[in-house]
Each structure stands twice: as structure tokens, then as C-alpha cells.
Amino acid sequence: MTSTEDLAARFESVFGAAPDGVWRAPGRVNLIGEHTDYNEGYVLPFAIDRAARVAVRVRPDSTLRLLSTFGNQGLTTADAGALQRATARGWTKYPLGVLWALQQRGVRIPGLDLLLDSDVPRGAGLSSSHAIECAVVCALNELTAAGLGAEDMVLATQSAENDFVGSPTGIMDQSASLRGAAGHAIFLDCRDQSLRLVPFDAESAGLVTLVIDTRVSHSHAGSGYASRRASCGLGAEVLGVQALRDVRPADLGDASALLDPVTFRRVRHVVTENDRVLQAVALLGSAGPTAIGPLLDASHASMRDDFDISCPELDLAVETARSAGAIGARMTGGGFGGSAIALTPVDAEQRVRAAVERAFARAGYAAPDIFGVRPAAGAIRVG
Ligand code: GLA
User: Fold this and answer.
1) Given ligand 1 and candidates 29, 30, 37, which is best to mutate, with the most ligand atoms within 8 Å of its CB?
2) Where are the domains of the chain?
3) pLDDT above 70 covers what percent of the chain?
4) Domain 201-373 has what CATH class?
5) Each residue of 108-123: pLDDT tens digit?
6) Could you tell me the distance, in angstroms and rounded to a whole number, from the CA of residue 16 to the centre of ligand 1?
7) Distance between Cα 95 and ligand 1 center (Å)
8) How far apart, in whole angstroms, are the C-alpha atoms of residue 143 and residue 137?
């Protein structure tokens, strides 16, 4: 990733004037609480030290120009106020979706020059698209004096994803990016957006949080996500609750008699996963990161067996990391590819890395990308 000064200099050389500012928004990993956000449940993600940045200048006319350091096709349009889904190609749909969502909220979009940069790996399940959206929403909130608070910006970027990009995602990723804090995971109640910062200091506990990017992204990721969401909606409707958040583990016996077997397994994942988030938060408070390993393992098993969103590469990463010494491991994010996380004692890190690399080579999979992450600060103006 280029430095903020280099990004500003590059902006000036391509657009012919200095930016008004540079904003930065991180990607995330989710410690636990998967596919619970759109069920009005609990999640426990943290912002990571990899981020998107956007340099922006308000223009005197209504022209909109978008460029990035990572995608060759940008976009130029004469009227920043006339945003159409049809104009959006590739990565440009993320910034355009945010401008569109702000406009829906009554914000007048001026002419703009935007240059994006990012070191969040794309397609790795670490929310690279939300990082872009969050950087852009912070920039525009300030430059247009829209006065949105963090919770409004979360909803604006969710609308960008749901209504412009066309992905029916929840609010976890942008909440982590916009509201994250260094040294903490965020315990978010997705029903009312109430949030508690939970200290997560793996290093002091002699641990490292390893991300294992499997580098696979299965083609059914989009439709698989949407169909899981639909199953959850069906489950809630049949059980007569507002959302699956309202079903307790003790209700599952009754639920099994009312639901078809597949919907029941989907519901059981969400209900038990919400419970695991609550247990993880309690354990982090009472005993620290070393205590949550078994919950991570149980979460992965539930996603593999009940929610059916894992894949052979993720299962191999998780199982190999566990046998080589990780104290807990699970896939993270939407599933069907992307990354796993493995909470690993520092003295087992090299063993885990080598074992996963060997296992992937033996299985004929592409080499995984393995790196450590720690909870970083949320979105902020950097220049
Ligand atoms: C993706 C979505 C989130 C969330 C996760 C699964 O990352 O963007 O809203 O649903 O999947 O937990």
C-alpha cells in the first residue's frame, strides 16, 4: 500500500489538483457470530490493520471521476447527481452505491474526483468492499456536511450493498469498519446497533490470530448467501417470531417438530451461534482469549454441518490448523470460500503455517495466504 502522501501526490498527478482530504477504513475478521447479523442477533468482529483509503476533491462542476490503484477501469460521468445502477462496473459500484445511498437520504452529491487504494485482499472474506464503502461514506459525510453519525453511516452503506450493489448482507462488516477500536473486538447487538467494546489482546495471552486466506471464492457464494437468508426468514415466519434472534436454544426441541429438516438445521445454526457469541463475550471477560478456542471450533462445525456454508478448502485449513496446535479455528465471513481464522499459540505459529501450506499442496489446492491480524482502529481521516 502506498503512503497517504504518495496517494495524495498520485491524486494530484492524475486529477490535476490536490485532494481535499484522505480517509481510511479497515477490513475486518469476525471472531464469532456468523450469519447472525441479518437475524437481528449478536456478532463479535474486529477491524484489522488492512484498509481501504480514498482521496477526494469536491469539484466546482457536476462531473464525477472515479479511479483506483487496483482496478484498471474507472468511471467518468458528467452528472454526479444522476447515479444509475447500470453505470456501475466492477469496483465502481461500491463508491457509486454509497453516493446513491446518501442521495436517497437527501444529501446533495457534488461533482467529485475520487482515487481509491486498498490493501485488504479482495475475495478473501475480509470485507474489502465494505472497507471501500466505509472510506467513501466517511469522506462524503464530512465534505457535504451531511452530519450522519456512525449508526446512520452503517445503514447508508448497508443500503448501498442491498439496494444498489444487490447483495442482501447485514450490518456486521461496516459496523466493524466504522466503529472498531484498537485492541478490542466489537460486541454488537444487530437489533438496535448497541455496541460494547470487548478487550481482545491475543498477544498478551501468548496467542496470534492467524488469517488463512484459502484463495477460493466459489461461484455460488452470492446465491448461497441469499438462500441462507431466505431460509432464516422462513424459519422465523413458521416459528412466529420477529427474527431468529428471538428463538432460544431451549426452544429448538419444539422448533424441530415445526420445521422441515433443512430449515431446522439453518435455524439451529443461528440460534446456537448467537448463544456462542454470548458465551465468548463472557469468557473473554472472565478468562481471556485462551478460553474461547472450543467455541470457535463449535462455530465452524455448525457452519459446516448445519448451515452448509463451508467448503473443502476451509475445512482443511481449520482441521490442519487445529491438529498443528491452534487452540480454536473457524471460517470467518459469509462462507463458500474466503478465509479461516486460527487462534494460535505464538510458539506454534510456524508449525501451523507450515502444516496448512503442506496440506494445501498435497490436496492440489492453490497456496493459501497466511498472515497475523490484530484489532485495529476503525475508519478515520488520515490526510
Ligand atoms: C458477510 C455479510 C455480513 C454477514 C456475514 C456472515 O460478511 O456482509 O453482513 O452476514 O457475511 O456473518
Assistant:
1) 37
2) 4-197+377-381, 201-373
3) 98
4) alpha beta
5) 999 999 999 999 999 8
6) 39
7) 19
8) 10
